[in-house]
Amino acid sequence: MLMKFVLSTAVVLFAMPLSAFAQDHGHNHGDTPYAGFEAREIKSLSDQDIAELRRGGGWGLALPAELNGLPGPAHLLELQEELALSSDQVAAITMMFEEMRAEAIMVGERFISAEAAVSAAFENAEVSREELTGLLATASEARAALRLVHLSRHLATPALLSDEQIRRYSVLRGYSDDPCANVPQGHDPTMWRRHNGCDE
């Protein structure tokens, strides 16, 4: 009898959904990281994403260049005084930025449209695998083209800057420590500051 009771209890327990245990033991925290996303017109893009893309913003697409020491034109213009950019440098970088922004807006619209098509395809869930493959390829190509717009400009900026301006940019953006702030032990302060282009 005892064995039958144990077995029957085990069957009942294993048949219960795991959610029941979670509720009973207070482990169901109701994590819903995507709650509210269902109201988006394009499910994969927020309103902020779309606004950023439509103004030609970087959208974080140039991080591989930015974080490896290749400045972006937008931030160079923001920091032109701190970097002591010449009028010729400002003119060249401004032209680069305006061209980049115009191209990014155009390609960004392509990407938004492609993501909208992917989102719409799942509204009735009748899209075929072949159709989905084509939609995703279009979206991926648009995103790659958008990354190229931004990353290619980062490749071009070092030729317009001095090594000191590039180093200073990295410090101002918080990517590296300022070598002028602290002279390492064992170094002559005057020589150290001179070699690192520090102001006397």
Write the layout of secondary structure elements.
Layout: H1 2-15, H2 18-24, H3 47-54, H4 63-66, H5 73-78, H6 87-121, H7 129-156, H8 163-172, H9 189-195
Uncertain runs are 1-29
| First-residue to last-residue Cα separation | 93 Å
What is the overall silhouette? elongated
Count up the helices: 9
State the CATH architecture of the domain at 47-176. Answer: Up-down Bundle
Indicate the percent of residues in helices.
55-70%
Q: How does the major sheet shape up? A: none
Taken as a percent bin, the fraction of beta residues is: under 5%
The Rg value, from CA coordinates, equals 28 Å
The first-level CATH class of the domain at 47-176 is given as: Mainly Alpha
State mean pLDDT (0 to 100 scale).
Answer: 83
SSE order in H/E notation? HHHHHHHHH
* Helical/strand content category: mainly alpha
Question: Could you tell me the number of beta strands?
Answer: 0
Could you say what the CATH topology of the domain at 47-176 is called?
A: Four Helix Bundle (Hemerythrin (Met), subunit A)
